[in-house]
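re: ur question from yesterday

yeah so i grabbed the chain u mentioned. its 117 aa long if i counted rite. heres the sequnce exactly as i have it in my notes:
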Amino acid sequence: QLQLAESGGGLVQAGDSLRLSCAASGRLFNSYGLGWFRQAPGKESEFVAQITRDFSSPAYADSVKGRFTISKDNAKNTVYLQMNSLKPEDTAVYYCAARPGSIYNVWGQGTQVTVSS
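ran it thru and got these C-alpha coordinates back, copy pasting raw so excuse formatting
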Protein backbone atom coordinates (compact mmCIF):
# COMPACT_ATOMS: atom_id res chain seq x y z
CA GLN A 1 0.00 0.00 0.00
CA LEU A 2 1.29 3.42 -0.91
CA GLN A 3 1.79 6.00 1.86
CA LEU A 4 2.09 9.74 1.28
CA ALA A 5 3.69 12.49 3.36
CA GLU A 6 3.45 16.17 2.47
CA SER A 7 5.92 18.88 3.44
CA GLY A 8 6.82 22.43 2.49
CA GLY A 9 3.88 24.38 3.81
CA GLY A 10 4.28 27.57 5.77
CA LEU A 11 3.36 31.20 6.26
CA VAL A 12 4.14 33.51 3.35
CA GLN A 13 3.05 36.89 2.05
CA ALA A 14 0.88 37.50 -0.96
CA GLY A 15 2.94 37.27 -4.12
CA ASP A 16 5.45 34.83 -2.64
CA SER A 17 6.14 31.29 -3.80
CA LEU A 18 6.19 27.91 -2.09
CA ARG A 19 6.95 24.42 -3.27
CA LEU A 20 5.09 21.56 -1.65
CA SER A 21 6.52 18.07 -1.74
CA CYS A 22 4.78 14.75 -1.31
CA ALA A 23 7.03 11.79 -0.68
CA ALA A 24 5.62 8.36 -1.35
CA SER A 25 6.67 5.14 0.29
CA GLY A 26 5.65 1.74 -0.89
CA ARG A 27 5.58 -0.06 -4.13
CA LEU A 28 4.32 0.86 -7.56
CA PHE A 29 4.58 4.67 -7.24
CA ASN A 30 4.83 4.84 -11.02
CA SER A 31 1.48 3.11 -11.32
CA TYR A 32 -0.52 5.88 -9.66
CA GLY A 33 -2.03 9.06 -10.89
CA LEU A 34 -1.27 11.84 -8.42
CA GLY A 35 -3.11 14.94 -7.36
CA TRP A 36 -3.20 17.87 -4.97
CA PHE A 37 -6.31 19.01 -3.16
CA ARG A 38 -6.89 21.71 -0.57
CA GLN A 39 -9.37 22.56 2.13
CA ALA A 40 -9.82 26.01 3.56
CA PRO A 41 -11.44 26.59 6.96
CA GLY A 42 -15.19 26.20 6.72
CA LYS A 43 -15.06 25.10 3.09
CA GLU A 44 -15.23 21.81 1.28
CA SER A 45 -12.17 20.14 -0.13
CA GLU A 46 -11.38 21.23 -3.67
CA PHE A 47 -9.27 19.89 -6.48
CA VAL A 48 -6.08 21.81 -7.23
CA ALA A 49 -4.01 19.85 -9.74
CA GLN A 50 -3.30 16.36 -11.00
CA ILE A 51 -0.84 14.50 -13.16
CA THR A 52 -1.20 11.11 -14.80
CA ARG A 53 1.10 8.14 -14.45
CA ASP A 54 2.87 8.87 -17.71
CA PHE A 55 3.35 12.59 -16.97
CA SER A 56 0.80 13.49 -19.62
CA SER A 57 -2.21 15.76 -19.33
CA PRO A 58 -1.57 17.77 -16.18
CA ALA A 59 -4.77 19.44 -15.12
CA TYR A 60 -5.43 22.42 -12.90
CA ALA A 61 -8.30 24.15 -11.20
CA ASP A 62 -9.15 27.44 -12.90
CA SER A 63 -8.29 29.29 -9.70
CA VAL A 64 -4.63 28.20 -9.85
CA LYS A 65 -4.04 27.83 -13.58
CA GLY A 66 -0.97 29.77 -14.66
CA ARG A 67 0.31 30.08 -11.08
CA PHE A 68 0.71 26.49 -9.89
CA THR A 69 2.65 23.66 -11.52
CA ILE A 70 2.47 19.98 -10.65
CA SER A 71 5.38 17.70 -11.38
CA LYS A 72 6.80 14.41 -10.21
CA ASP A 73 10.15 12.69 -9.93
CA ASN A 74 9.75 8.94 -10.23
CA ALA A 75 13.35 8.35 -9.16
CA LYS A 76 12.60 10.11 -5.86
CA ASN A 77 9.02 8.85 -5.51
CA THR A 78 7.96 12.44 -5.01
CA VAL A 79 5.30 14.71 -6.45
CA TYR A 80 5.63 18.49 -6.21
CA LEU A 81 3.35 21.48 -6.35
CA GLN A 82 5.13 24.70 -7.24
CA MET A 83 2.95 27.61 -6.16
CA ASN A 84 3.77 31.09 -7.45
CA SER A 85 2.04 34.44 -7.01
CA LEU A 86 0.26 33.17 -3.94
CA LYS A 87 -2.93 34.90 -2.85
CA PRO A 88 -4.66 35.01 0.55
CA GLU A 89 -7.44 32.86 -0.93
CA ASP A 90 -4.86 30.09 -1.45
CA THR A 91 -4.73 29.64 2.33
CA ALA A 92 -5.71 26.06 3.11
CA VAL A 93 -4.47 22.66 4.18
CA TYR A 94 -3.01 21.03 1.10
CA TYR A 95 -3.23 17.27 0.61
CA CYS A 96 -1.63 15.04 -1.94
CA ALA A 97 -3.48 11.98 -3.11
CA ALA A 98 -2.90 8.96 -5.31
CA ARG A 99 -5.20 6.89 -7.49
CA PRO A 100 -4.46 3.53 -9.08
CA GLY A 101 -7.50 3.94 -11.28
CA SER A 102 -10.10 6.67 -11.43
CA ILE A 103 -10.64 7.17 -7.69
CA TYR A 104 -8.23 8.83 -5.27
CA ASN A 105 -7.97 6.36 -2.40
CA VAL A 106 -4.61 7.17 -0.82
CA TRP A 107 -4.19 10.46 1.02
CA GLY A 108 -1.44 12.24 2.91
CA GLN A 109 -1.89 13.98 6.25
CA GLY A 110 -1.83 17.49 4.81
CA THR A 111 0.38 20.55 5.12
CA GLN A 112 -0.79 24.04 6.07
CA VAL A 113 -0.27 26.93 3.69
CA THR A 114 -1.11 30.40 4.98
CA VAL A 115 -0.85 33.45 2.76
CA SER A 116 -1.05 36.85 4.44
CA SER A 117 -2.16 39.97 2.62
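noticed a couple things. The chain has a mean pLDDT of 93. also Residues 91 and 114 are 5 Å apart (CA to CA).
anyway ttyl
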